[in-house]
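Marked as duplicate of an earlier ticket. Keeping the data here for the record.
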Amino acid sequence: MSGVWYISDWHLTIRLLLAALCGGLIGLEREWNHHAAGFRTHILVCIGSAAIMLLSIYGFSQFVTEENVRMDPARLAAQVISGIGFLGAGAIMRTGATVSGLTTAASIWVVAAIGLCVGAGFYYCAGLATLLVLVSLFLLNKWEKVLMRDRRHQEVTIKIFDRPGSLGRIATEFGLQGIQIANVNMTPEEKPVLGEKGEPVMELRFRLKFASGDRMVKALEGISKTGDVLSIESKWSSSQTVSRMSSPSA
């Protein structure tokens, strides 16, 4: 059989393989940067979207000759566009004032659209969309970091012994490196390990504004040497633990 409502197994195979390639290229960038949805997730989304598009166009070809039957290739594709949002929402995470995963969620959504284009045989659009997405994720990401480096905020969590002047010493180290403290939250530990003089442990969550990564490194190194710090955690630098814990004095 031939006609607009029919496709050969060879062409169907090409479309699914092309969908896997397009989705894999975008997913590889997400995987390389250790995001929630990576290489395999994007491939599966793109292949699934292409398969649904193929099903929507060619899967009901046996009903073409039936009377009172109207073919609508967009009917299943529309459900993909709305339904993929649930998968994208699962990649979005919020930690305090920081929201992450929005770009990954958007990449999942656009990969679904690319899969639909490939499934429909809209190859130029699929290829161009894949290229633009890769440019956005690779090149524009670096450009955005340079453009917004003076406006970004970073969260740093520091556990300290609650001693007089501890917070002041930490704030001084940040100030010496030109790092602005936008906000700080203080939370006492529920089951703290007491220090040498029986001091309780306090968790400090800083929201910082800085332009230079080197200055942040110097600030964290200076803070770790103050003698009050138990641990420092930051998304920007790897977690480090300072050995300051000892049994309380008698």
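See parent ticket for discussion. Residues 9-147 form one domain.
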